[in-house]
């Protein structure tokens, strides 16, 4: 089905769907980009977000992990609890490689594995993608461009700006190829439950999104 | 105060620093008037050409000037050769000066007509100019740069400290600001311009029976006339002036010597390897130079030491009355230079006889001329645990 | 269309879920253009060499040696791996329990627990609060900010200077004296030869090549060690080594390497080896000396004219004082060198011109003062000190020593000390009866036994009660001995702060960890050619500081701002101002002697060349006139017997060089029946100490199964059923480690080598992931200091004794843990 064949309502419907998908990618990107702070917690436990998450949880593949996220979020009543979650985040994503789940595509896609130098090939590729879309990584986010939060944010961007085929190709090649290993590493290394749930949710979301995209493109 | 020299050296580069010297309007006008007057008066003798005829030949001083802020700056004031090198109260002295200068320049014409020859003579020529600046308290500078109109608040804290001190004393600018319009001469390894800038070049007329300290390592002579050296007087050594004749003084150096070799080396005190003076073999054996007193054995080496007093001649310059400025300079140099690679040990961490070994073994990356090295070593020795019993 | 409905349902819940900014931003055209400007080659330098770099899309791409470096080290291939290392310290971090409980935190978790990211502002305030607490509660004796070591190169950003100036503006602290490399040597030699010798310029190689008939490399491997330098190294010594190789081949110079091991240098030169039992060099030297006296080969005239105390040494040598004549036979028993060879050596060394070149390893052992002293005595007996190609050197394997210095003035540095008129906020100098300066290697003793008084170099040192440590660009969890003992000490510390580039073990055992950028992410200047001082190098920034790392200048300027002393700290000058000032000061110091362009010209060119130096002979002036040019010894002469040392009355360092048995010694020595193998932990071939170990790709060029190699003899390997490539457990009563076996004919039975600088990666004692913080942990990578002994060399130097170390080893059959050294803190449940 090409755009010219679509009627206005269908077009509107496609836009709404892509907006929803973008929103999910945005949510996932935000949670991988930094620790949950008071602001983010406030938003995530707000009525709108809860409704959003509840709707997401209506899909059985997502339910268990969303329930975990919600229940952890509900325990974050104190600064200490937030710090503990921040320490989980730090141990997984900020400090190292071997005994953590560094969030860089390159570490999962190269033979040298967890000790691949960063800012390598995958970083360069992402920089090129971003540049083509007139984008760059925020200066306040001083990370290589193959950081999962960047890739998810770019997925958000293309949901709204690119055709399904292009979306499918990007998400398949630049996210799905390593997401499984990443999610497994997070699950293995996480001392808490929040980020392993988030990683698994991301994986099942991407799986389901790719299924959907492949249906629309065939 | 190395930094002050460094700061003024930067004067030669970025133009914005000219405001440091705060060129006052009145001085500016004076310069214009003076310049015009000068040209008119000396047109007949073609002085401008006369300057260049010599200085363009090797072209160095003139070119060097052109690279400095005294040549080009945002206020458009330019200092040219005669501004600095011809006395400003010229109306009275011009005739005599010109005569004298003519001789000098004529002589120079033959002796500095190649860059090599010029470099060779640079120190000598510069020294003559510095002396002249010293005599009139850097009047040529002060015609434009006025202590009273300096803007303290736009100077760094350290610059303020230095400049205010200088202003209080109406100090001669050239004391610190050497080499700003031309390249500094090669001061050799034996002279320490920064040190001298800080402690001065000594009393103009040392008094008999007074004690002084050497501000540099100085040559010793057999008598008041000869150029034959009889040894060296180490830096920061206490001497007593016994007699003065012309540019020379006869001094007495008290100390101890080891009874080895010809006993030519005089040390600060018994058993302490703190160098005061070294005499040549001839001088050490010369009748009347070295008077020997009692003898003691140093239990730490088994060497016999003798108390001595040497009476010998030296130039009357670089003899200062106060030792403290030398120590201040040494302390600061030690703290700055010896912490480049590692934390410098406290002065009192070692004893006087250990310091030379430690110090000499660590100076590979340290920039110190030989005078400064000798001074810092002596400073460390005289502030070592041998003297400072409060050591950790 | 279920999916579509589901997604539409999502939208209906809310349009705006998150207000936070995306990690993406619109492309900034200017920035993009800037990043595209990858220009040409940029110049910079490091301990591993001066080099040039090219970028691709703003990322370091190619690294090639500096033009004048004709013998570059392959270590520059590791540079990219350093910068883009996945275990960079990316953000300021604080150990969670420390953040929650401050100085009352559970310190046993240190080294194995949870960190959280904090802002720079928060981190620097935490640092200030901790310093406040320690200064208020304990005064300056509670703080040790004096453990410093090899920084990265660069005179402006020299990390130890910045740290000590900034911390010094807050308050006073305990400092160190000496260093780990040459602790015993630099303490004993001023008594003997009147200078530390180890860091002094030495006789020029060209003169050695011309004049020497015999060169003795004593425990010395210059071909390995000259790869790295204190400044930007340009490896000029290698040209002379190449000439020496040629002369050896032509039979013009005889080079003898006295060493238990076949060294890299020996192999390169194709020279002879004289095997000696480990730690027995003094006995060998005494045997040689005895033979010289017996055969009257020694230069009595030189001894008389230039030294003191030979008479007091002779009775010991000949056995009159202790009943044991130090004959070649006596020495042979201890050293395994035959009496004939010892006799021959005495003859060879006194015939023709003999240059002794001493390495540093043999002074990093118990009684490490003695081999250096005795070697000086031998050189005195030979009588060629001060002659070109003769005498003794303690530094020709280091930083281009022996390459004539250009004589130019080197640049100064950002000041380490407070300016003259500045005072710290906490200006107390009350160390509560303890010493304000302690011997560098005794800090763990000090933490464990505060108040104890020890002898050190003729005075008494009372250990301060240290509660807080601040490290910057310093990794004592590499260079100090006995990890398990260090852990016990660290449990007693209230606060540990580390500023570094990558997650070193020291960072992991810290509470506050601050990210410094690498030397390639900042502008700086340095000399190149180390001791040759061949020129001045522009160290041009290759890339902006990665993550939230900052330059040392920036880190401590911000910290000074927290103290309200920013302007005092920087003197109101920016980084650029300082760079220009350091350059202009250097230019001024060289005025009239060495032409230097203005700063812009220099920066554009990338370097200033100072020219060649003049060949020079060490101690020639002393030889020419010992009265006018005395040595810095108490007598001014070479002191074969030191009355000064004798009067200290030290049992482990008497008044003349003495053979003393070691606490542990292989080949029949004490402890060898239990742990029969001597482990040498020499300076690494492929690193500068622990710098560069983390560079993964480069590490893989030498690692064995991802572990540090342990080199061993075929005999030892066979006896234990080990072959190259096996994972080996090396152990003694102090600790255990895993390493990868390399079986090599270069090693004799009873000797293994694990190079120091191998990053500590503790895991549980049984190889499990957990328990690395505990005493008894297994090092998963192979840090030899897991096994070494933490004792002073003697009461004189109190230096490190890493080379007095016996171990045993076996093929590892347990659970093989992942290497944990290079992955930041490991989180485990305690």
Automatic annotation (TrEMBL), chain B:
Pfam families from the xrefs? Cytochrom_NNT (PF03264)
Please list the residues that bind heme 1. Answer: 51, 54-55
Binding-site list for heme 2 = 81, 84-85
Q: Name one GO molecular function term.
A: iron ion binding
Instruction: State the family named in the UniProt similarity comment for this chain.
Output: Belongs to the NapC/NirT/NrfH family.
Upper classification of the source organism reads: Bacteria, Pseudomonadati, Pseudomonadota, Gammaproteobacteria, Alteromonadales
The residue ranges crossing the membrane are 17-38
Residue positions binding heme 5: 338, 341-342
Q: What is this protein called?
A: Cytochrome c-type protein
Q: Which controlled-vocabulary keywords does the entry list?
A: Cell inner membrane, Cell membrane, Electron transport, Heme, Iron, Membrane, Metal-binding, Transmembrane, Transmembrane helix, Transport
| This protein's record includes keyword Hydrolase | no
- Principal localization? membrane
From TrEMBL, chain C:
- Can you state which reaction this protein catalyses? trimethylamine + 2 Fe(III)-[cytochrome c] + H2O = trimethylamine N-oxide + 2 Fe(II)-[cytochrome c] + 3 H(+)
- Ranges for domain Molybdopterin oxidoreductase: 88-560
Per UniProt, the keywords (alphabetical) are: Metal-binding, Molybdenum, Oxidoreductase, Periplasm, Signal
Q: What is its EC number?
A: 1.7.2.3
Question: Could you state what the record's PTM comment says about this protein?
Answer: Exported by the Tat system.
Per the similarity annotation, which family is this?
Belongs to the prokaryotic molybdopterin-containing oxidoreductase family.
Q: What does this protein do?
A: Reduces trimethylamine-N-oxide (TMAO) into trimethylamine; an anaerobic reaction coupled to energy-yielding reactions.
What is this protein's record name?
Answer: Trimethylamine-N-oxide reductase
Provide the organism lineage as a comma list.
Answer: Bacteria, Pseudomonadati, Pseudomonadota, Gammaproteobacteria, Alteromonadales
The primary gene name is torA
